[in-house]
Each structure stands twice: as structure tokens, then as C-alpha cells.
Amino acid sequence: MNTGPGLFSDVGKKARDLLTANYTTDKKFSVNTCSVDNGVVLTSTALKSGGLSTAAVAAKYIYKNSLIDVMVDTESNVLTTVTLTEIFPSTKGIASFKFPDCSSGKMEVQYFHDHATFTTSVALRQSPLINISATVGTPSMAFGAEVGYDTNSGTLTKYSAGVSAQKSDAYASIILGDKGDSIRASYVHHVDKLKKSAAAGEVMRKFSTNENIVTVGGQYTIDPLTVVKGKLNNYGTLGAVLQHEIIPKSLLTISTEVNTKALERTPKFGLSIALVP
Q1: pLDDT digit string, tens, across residues 114-169
Q2: Residue 265 belongs to some domain of the structure
Q3: Is 61 among the domain residues?
Q4: Rounded distance between C-alpha atoms, residue 92 and residue 113, angstroms
């Protein structure tokens, strides 16, 4: 795949990753057997979210330009995802199927160009949902939009538009979403040349409810093995994450969430251990 403006889903992704990734109150444990360029990767995962516990086993097979990912959970759901790259020049195809809920299957095609990307996905059911997105521009400046259409009701299920701009040490984006009912602006700035530390801010306005959500956060790399992150919004929700590489490629992540406007409430904690032998 060549370099270009990226997918529409990439607009605002850097801020979302810094402000949301690994901020969780779940307990998760996963083990990978190995990671190879061409071969099989097995992953076992146990997750406790609230009062519910689930477990899953996933197998990933990689061969040349194809990837087959199969996951089975404790509720007997089988999710299979097949990804093919370069089936046509600069094109990627993704097919996903879930058993026994076969109606959740989806086919997606992504096309990449130096100055544009295009994706279309179709739900595999009698009256499918169709989603189309496109971006134009360059890696440093991109404009994009997406539309969802329900063939059964003949209505638009969503439409959004966004713009992003970036340079070596900063990234900014604005997204008009929720059928024009919300606008979200975000900014990420790397405060050192090695990009080990960064600060981010996001402002979201919901027009129908006159609600404003302002979130600020940051990330700091203590050493090559340890990263800390923190965020705070205007509702007083304070989150923190500590991630440490205990052995090569194996991560221990501890997260917490506190409501600073109601300190009498018990803080929430999350724990994730991902082992790669």
C-alpha cells in the first residue's frame, strides 16, 4: 500500500488513541504463542468486565498477502475475518463472518491512492447496510466524509465529514458527526524531538443537548520500557494509565479512574497483562 491521506477512520485517531487507549476498568489477561511473518499465532484471552467474565481463543494464520483470523469465545460465538491485500493494485479486501449470527457478516473493500482513499462495506443480509467513506489530500492535509445507507428503509443511517492537518510535531482534526448534531475538535502536540512525550486536547459540542465536553491529557515516556498517561475532563473525571514492558513485547497495564467531584465514590481500576513468549 502506498502513502496517502489515510482512511476516514484515521481522522482524529491520534488524539483518540492518546485520550482513550488503555483507559479501562476491565481485567484482562492474554497470552500469544508467537508472532511470525508467515505462520500461525495463537492467542488466549480472559476478560472480566463489571460482573461478567468471558474467555476467548483466537488463531491467526498469515501467508503472503492473506490473513485469516478466527476467534471462539465462551458463548460459542465464532468470528472469522479474512483479509487480502493487493488482490488488485493498492486494494485491500476484508470479509468477516460471525456464527451463529450470520446476519452480522460484512464485506469491505479499501482502495489507496497517493492523493485519495476510498472504502465501501456491505452487510451480508437480505436488506444490507451500505457504508461508504472517502478522503482526499496528502499525509499532511486531508479532507474526508462518510455515509451510511439502509437499503431496507431507504434512509441515511449516518453522515459525517472531517478534516485533519499534521506536521512533524503536531496533529489537528475537526469532525462534524452524528448527522451534523456534533462537532469534535482535537489537537496533539509532541513536546520533544523524539516524540516520547505529548499533550492532547479535545472539545466536543453536542448541539441537540447543548452539551460541551472538554478533555485534556498527556503522555510521558519515563524510560524505554515505561509509559504513563493521564487525562481530565470538565466533568471532573480523572484517568491515569501506567504501562510497563515486563519482558520483550509483553506488557503490564494498570489504569484507574476517579471522579474528582465525588471523591467519596470508590475509584475504578483496570488491569491488563499481555504475554508474548
Answers
A1: 999 999 999 988 888 999 999 999 999 999 999 999 998 999 999 999 999 999 89
A2: yes
A3: yes
A4: 12
